[in-house]
Amino acid sequence: MTTMAASPAGLLTREDLDRMPDDGNRYELIEGEIVVSAAPILAHQVAAARLVITLAAACPDQLEVLHAPVDVVLGEHTVVQPDVLVLDPAATDDRGLNGPPLLAVEVLSPSTRGRDLGQKKRVYEQAGVAAYWVVDVAGDEVALTAWELRDGTFAAAAAIAGDETWTAAVPFDVTVVPARLRR
């Protein structure tokens, strides 16, 4: 992961983000800084894909489950691409989602772990994302940690691993088993 600092004139904007090359990297704008991430490892992609399938099977018709890359505009200086997200299609345009998703999911990787658990969690919380999940595929067992927004602050909702089961209520009722997110 590489970070491009803000220009002397101030924080970078979506216009700056739009000038990034189409080179196979993922570019996000987080609090005015461009963050570049290389292509994820296979375990990351498998977990994200299987989570999309799980969520889509339970998703109400009026919502959508998508996977990266989808631009999520959280402000003039923040445009992120969660690995998996649930959104209301009414809040989208041709370029992506304008405002917070109902659920943002990040699959942790060594290069993004600190940012996903720190800065991104804070940014999602401040933007009003209803639920934030992180999936960790690095250990012997896949783990999932979830937070739900309560009174403007993320509160712990679940911390499960392996064959443990959790049924989320936000953004809709869905049962997740972390072990099923690994092949």
Automatic annotation (TrEMBL):
The record lists the organism as Nocardioides simplex (Arthrobacter simplex)
Give the CDD domains listed for this entry. Answer: DUF820-like
According to UniProt, the name of this protein is: Uncharacterized protein
Q: Which InterPro entries match?
A: Nuclease_put_TT1808, Restrct_endonuc-II-like, Uma2
Q: Which domain of life is it from?
A: Bacteria
